[in-house]
Structures are given as C-alpha cells and as structure tokens.
Amino acid sequence: MPAYNQARYVGEAIESVLRQSYPYWELVIVDDGSPDNVADIVKGYGDNRIQFYHTDNHGVSAARNFGIRHSHGSYILPLDADDKIAPTYVESCVNSFLSDPTITLVYCKWKWFGKAHHTPALEYKGYRSLLCENSIFCSAMFKREDFESTVGYDENIPYGYEDWEFWIRMLDGKSKVVQLQETLFYYRRTASSRSLSADIPERNRITMRYIYHHNREKYDKYFPDILTDLNELAYLRRRTEKWKHRSLASRLWKAIRAEL
User: Measuring CA to CA, which residue among 209, 205, 234 is closest to residue 219?
Assistant: First the structure.
C-alpha cells in the first residue's frame, strides 16, 4: 500500500484489510515521502500484521516495488491508500489460486465511489485485447513468483498507467486470468485522482508511446500487420460516421430489412 498524501483516507483502506475473512495476511504500507501525517495514523494500529516503512518520494511504482520486496507472502495484492476491498476479497482470490495452480491473476467486479457517477465495466478478453486497452484494475492478486520474473513496476513511466504496463509484461497469451463475479473492490475517485490526470490527452499520448516502445516486441508479435489493422479501423469509423448521420427512419428501415 503506497501512502502518499493520503492521511485523510488511509484509515478506511486499513480497516478494509483488518476486516478480511482470510486471516493470514500481512499489510506493508510505504510512506512515499508523504508531506502529511499518514505515518501517525498508520502507527495508531497495533496489529502486528501491519508493517510500516518510510522512503523518499519516488512515486507509486517505486513504493509498490519496495513494499512487495519487503513482504513475505506467496500472493500479492496491491491496494492504494484511498481505496477499499470487501471482507471476502483476499479469501476469494486465494481460494481461486489454490483450486487451479495454472491461474496467473485474479480480480473481481469493481465499483467507483466518491466523485463518481458511473463505473465502467472491465472484462479481460484476452492478451491481444489487453495490449490495446487496460481491462484489469490495479488491485488484482498475482503470484510472487510471477512478480519476480519481471523487473517490477516501471519506475520511469510518465503520467500513470503503471499497472497496465506491468500487466503487459507479466502476462502473455498463455496466461490464465480469472475475474470473480462479485463486486469486491472499491475505487475512490476524487478531484485529484491520478487516473483523472492520466486522461489529459497530451499526457495520455506520451504514456501510450512509452508503453508501446518499451513493449515493442509484444506489439509486433500480436499486431504484425499493423497497417491492415489501422485500415480496418478506419473503415469501421467511416461506417460509424455514416450510420450516425442517417435519419431515425432510415436506421429503423435498415434494421427491419436486416431482420427480414
């Protein structure tokens, strides 16, 4: 749990871990050079399963890597200090791994809260689709051994999306990803959420280019005919624009003819 400037919310995140039905956990909290009193709040919890570390500010990727490398469990579940998990989330994830050792990653349905009105659906539809768009939130459980097979979260990536870039490197076309069909993860949206700043168009383009160039071999493998793919995308866009400009009566008539 990276905890930078999250004194306002970190208690809720910790409480959600303390309420877990699965008792064999450890919580490693990394105060990433936070300017607020997050350290005082964390130290107020007397549970010996909670470990606390202070580091200089190097960003969320560095904090996650530090926390994971100072943990001891066989399974890892990143959790940001302003988010929450349902009481059965850890147990459900662990049971999935124990029931099927071939699983690489487990996550669940999710819900936004705070400054949010609609939660977008996330559904993993295969590795090729993941290369185009992230479909797994940051708080998914994975095996320590798979983390150690990578260099961890990229500490140089600009403007967020570090979890997506990490999934691209850790997973591959043979990985088995399981999504639990319960809402067990709650993602807080605030006016200063990093995910909001990551949506700024220019920052988005910079980060997308970074992800592509740092995983070029994977994109070349799964999209060897990139010009053909772009041509098909352009065709679909033209068809969509043409459809949007049809009258309602024309759309209905086309739909009826298709049914006939």
Answer: 209
End-to-end CA distance of the chain: give it in Å, rounded: 57
* Residues 6+ away with beta carbon under 8 Å from 175: 104, 105, 127
Closest listed residue to residue 30, CA positions, set 10, 4, 5, 48: 4
The two structure tokens encoding residue 206:
């910079």
Continuous H helices in the chain: 10-18, 38-43, 60-69, 89-99, 127-132, 144-148, 162-170, 194-197, 201-214, 216-222, 226-244, 248-259
Classify residue 245 by burial, with Cβ atoms within 10 Å: 0-12, 13-18, 19+. Answer: exposed
Residue whose pair of structure tokens reads 């147990």 in the numeric block: 91
* Confidence class for position 117, pLDDT limits 50, 70, 90: confident
Read off the DSSP letter of residue 2. B
Q: In this predicted model, what pLDDT tens digit does every residue of 178-237 receive, in sequence order?
A: 999 999 999 999 876 555 555 588 999 999 999 999 999 999 999 988 777 778 777 787
For residues 20 and 75, give the distance between their C-alpha atoms in angstroms, rounded to a whole number.
15
Q: Is the separation of the CB atoms in 70 and 28 below 8 Å? A: yes
Residue 16 tokens read as 């959600």
- 23, 58, 201 from 83: Cα distances, Å: 20, 21, 25
Place of tokens 């530090």: 66
Dist. CA 34–CA 147, nearest whole Å: 26
Helices of type H across 80-161: 89-99, 127-132, 144-148
